[in-house]
């Protein structure tokens, strides 16, 4: 493990000024139990060996890196490469931490997994883990996202999960988190809350990052073998930020530029985007300190993005820390650029990406010309099966 990862966060779960655990009293003993279990199991050879076995023989890891030759030629300048998390079982990076959370739950004697989901990929992954380990599964999902991501709702139900529609507020990811937390409070004795990103109270931002770090560890070794050195720039989309932290973890101590790409939605006006790192302020949400998009009343603001998995008004506390210390640069891609990238990589490379991942592709296509002779590695965090009905019904097939 890198020096940075060993030392960050501190024992209270703070990444500099961000993180921590602000919990209602009924949940404090349960989170203490999770922290203690993770501290023990993360150093257990038997736990780590079982996780390695699962990753290789169930998930299909390692996932490859692909050189996007045609997209690179079209963009001009830098060569663009993609870490293919879309080829991980269930079609996204989410299974990396969900199988580990399921294994953790099993070792803790829990019988149920509870979680929120936005685009549905975390819900599918946690339902998959629950099926694998013989656990019950309850997934909370906003009604807007249920309509938008219907294929993933079907997959969750086929895997045996109970999908709880959330009709409050904007009916998207924030409300799904609120609903799932409420349900978990009543079931914490026998259930584990499988938080879906590097967000939430300590230890989840650290724990999910650690479980996702396999993406960066593999990428560093694979890229060096494939190209003969490290990439010049590493980029990934950021909503909560788990796929980005997983990739960044492999390069955090290297002389490699790290870029997080946020959803600019339809404009920079509050309510039209979900670019928390770009437009947010210091605040608290869902039990931790981070950057938050706030409305005039100081409450989490409505957000908007074409990608359901990125529509969150907060962000992982480690991202806020890495921006503050200048280690990671955060930029944006809007809905129009993202759709264009979605169509282009589909037509030029034979890869249909998740709309979340298409934000990173859009950024790489836009920025490649500014970095001639350089290599850009992006995290293609998920496949677009879940998005094809929404995209084609709403936007068509992108021309000939």
Describe the structure.
The protein contains 16 helices and 14 strands. It is α/β, with parallel strands linked by helices. The chain folds into 2 domains: 29-56 and 94-204, Rossmann fold (3-Layer(aba) Sandwich), CATH 3.40.50.1100; 61-92 and 213-395, Rossmann fold. The strands form 4 sheets. It has a 6-stranded mixed sheet, with helices on both faces. A hairpin with a 2-residue loop joins β11 (281-285) and β12 (288-292). The longest helix has 24 residues, at 204-227. The N and C termini lie far apart (47 Å). 57% of the residues are buried. The mean pLDDT is 96.
Compressed to H and E, one letter per element, the order equals: HEEHHEHEHEHEHHEHEHEHEHEEHEHHEH
Number of domains: 2
What overall geometry do the principal axes of the alpha carbons give? globular
Mean pLDDT across all amino acids = 96
Show the helix and strand layout.
Layout: H1 3-7, E1 14-15, E2 18-19, H2 28-41, H3 45-59, E3 65-67, H4 69-75, E4 79-84, H5 95-107, E5 112-117, H6 121-133, E6 136-142, H7 143-148, H8 150-158, E7 162-166, H9 173-187, E8 191-193, H10 204-227, E9 233-237, H11 242-248, E10 257-265, H12 276-279, E11 281-285, E12 288-292, H13 317-324, E13 328-334, H14 335-349, H15 355-367, E14 375-380, H16 388-395
Helix pairs in contact: 3-5, 4-15, 5-6, 6-8, 10-11, 14-15
Short account of what is shown:
With 400 residues, the protein is of the alpha/beta class.
Q: What are its keywords?
A:
400 residues; alpha/beta; Rossmann fold; six-stranded mixed sheet; 16 helices
């Amino acid at each position: 493990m890198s020096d940075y990862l060993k030392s960050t966060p501190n024992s209270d779960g703070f990444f500099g000024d961000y993180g921590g655990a602000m919990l209602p009293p009924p949940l404090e003993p349960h989170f203490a139990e999770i922290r203690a279990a993770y501290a023990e199991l993360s150093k257990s050879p038997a736990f780590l060996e079982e996780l390695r076995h699962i990753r290789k023989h169930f998930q299909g890891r390692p996932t490859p890196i692909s050189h996007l030759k045609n997209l690179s030629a079209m963009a001009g300048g830098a060569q663009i490469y993609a870490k293919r998390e879309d080829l991980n079982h269930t079609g996204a990076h989410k299974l990396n931490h969900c199988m580990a959370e399921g294994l953790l739950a099993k070792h803790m004697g829990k019988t149920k997994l509870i979680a929120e989901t936005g685009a549905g990929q975390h819900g599918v992954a946690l339902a998959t883990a629950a099926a694998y380990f013989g656990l019950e599964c309850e997934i909370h999902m906003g009604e807007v996202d249920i309509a938008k991501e219907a294929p993933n709702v079907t997959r969750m139900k086929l895997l045996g999960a109970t999908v709880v529609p959330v009709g409050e507020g904007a009916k998207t990811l924030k409300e799904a988190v609120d609903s799932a937390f409420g349900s978990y409070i009543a079931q914490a004795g026998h259930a584990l809350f499988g938080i879906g990103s590097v967000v939430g109270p300590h230890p989840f931002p650290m724990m999910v990052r650690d479980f996702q770090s396999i993406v960066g560890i593999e990428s560093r070794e694979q890229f060096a073998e494939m190209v003969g050195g490290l990439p010049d720039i590493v980029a990934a989309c950021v909503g909560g930020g788990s796929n980005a932290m997983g990739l960044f973890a492999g390069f955090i101590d290297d002389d490699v530029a790290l870029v997080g790409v946020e959803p600019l939605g339809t404009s920079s006006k509050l309510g039209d985007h979900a670019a928390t790192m770009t437009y947010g302020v210091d605040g608290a949400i869902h039990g931790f300190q981070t950057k938050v998009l706030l409305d005039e009343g100081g409450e989490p603001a409505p957000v908007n993005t074409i990608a359901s998995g990125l529509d969150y008004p907060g962000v992982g506390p480690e991202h806020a820390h890495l921006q503050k210390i200048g280690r990671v640069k955060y930029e944006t891609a809007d809905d129009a650029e993202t759709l264009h990238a979605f169509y282009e990589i589909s037509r030029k490379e034979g890869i249909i990406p998740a709309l979340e991942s298409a934000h990173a592709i859009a950024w790489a296509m836009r920025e490649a010309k500014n970095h001639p002779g350089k290599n850009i590695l992006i995290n293609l965090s998920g496949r677009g099966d879940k998005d094809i009905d929404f995209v084609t019904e709403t936007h068509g097939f992108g021309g000939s």
